[in-house]
Amino acid sequence: MDAIKEGRAWLKDTLRDAVDSSATEQAKGVPMPPFEKEPVGLSLIQLPEVDFHTKEGPSLGEVLTQRASRRRFAQKPLTLYELAFLLKASAGAHQGRGTGWRFTPSAGNRHSEETLVAVLRVEGLPQGIYRYLAGRHCLDFQRSVPNLSEEVAVAARHQLFVARAGVVFFWTVVPHRTKWRYSGASAKVIALDLGHVCQNLYLACEYLGLGTCAIAAYDQKRSDDLLGVDGQEEFTAYLAPVGTL
Ligand SMILES: Cc1cc2nc3c(=O)[nH]c(=O)nc-3n(C[C@H](O)[C@H](O)[C@H](O)COP(=O)(O)O)c2cc1C
């Protein structure tokens, strides 16, 4: 099959017909994969609690109608509260419903996505790569990277505005979480799930007066290496720089 036909087939739900539902890992009784990674054990940064119920700020209508992709960022840093707000709004877990229940929908509630952030300019937070742990609402420090601003731009195929962000959201996927239930019909729903997460980030940015831009053009290996993920069981799928305006 050529790449165009393969791409069309991938977008259709006929893939599901090819799945033997009695032979999935779930049907065979394989234990459900965990919803999120364990901390790597370097340092955990507890994030401020976020209040989504304030009456201040723009209305939903304003947020929806003003949303746009923004690529011109000022150099003013984000606050830690703003970063906590964006992480919670896009990848946060519902308190009381358990870590697996998030603020975005997911096919079969599998949530193959992970959120890692490259912190460039956030008040009180050293530059580096962090993983968001939704269940604990904290950041798990992964690694320091020399020349991080340049590295994120290179990972984004030299889209230079990315280097001016305060923080770059990198969404990786752990496909096994979804494959456990949907086997060969997993890839499309994982991609759909990612769209919801990114849209929540757009809306939360608009609400806070920050800017973001979805990015699907990135260098797979440079990005995976930057994040420190293996490129097989976990790999980059989407990113979005966030900056002040
Ligand atoms: C899946 C996806 C991938 C995108 N990739 C890029 C990208 O690599 N670089 C970029 O500058 N914009 C990218 N964009 C932003 C689009 O160019 C933008 O959404 C589109 O021009 C419409 O503008 P608006 O978001 O302001 O409505 C992407 C958007 C989506 C949804």
List the helices and strands and how they pair.
Blueprint (H helix, E strand, L loop, with lengths): L2 H9 L2 H4 L26 E3 L13 H7 L13 H12 L21 E7 L8 E6 L4 E6 L4 H8 L11 E7 L2 H7 L3 H23 L1 E3 L7 H8 L7 E10 L1
Antiparallel strand pairs: 1-4, 2-3, 2-5, 3-4, 5-7, 6-7
The structure holds flavin mononucleotide.
Flavin mononucleotide binds next to loops.
The level 1 CATH classification is Alpha Beta
* CATH architectural category: 3-Layer(aba) Sandwich
Mean pLDDT over the residues? 94
Q: What is the succession of H and E elements? A: HHEHHEEEHEHHEHE
C-alpha-based Rg, rounded: 18 Å
Please sum up the structure shown.
The chain has eight helices and seven strands. The chain has 245 residues and is α+β, with helices and mostly antiparallel strands. The chain has a single domain (57-244), classed as NADH Oxidase.
Description:
- The protein has 245 residues and is of the alpha+beta class.
- It has one domain: NADH Oxidase.
- 32% of the residues lie in helices and 17% in strands.
- The protein contains 8 helices and 7 strands; from the N terminus they run ααβααβββαβααβαβ.
- The radius of gyration is 18 Å and the shape is globular.
- Bound molecules: flavin mononucleotide (FMN).
- Flavin mononucleotide binds at residues 68-69, 159, 213-217.
- Flavin mononucleotide (FMN) is lined by residues 68-69, 159, 213-217.
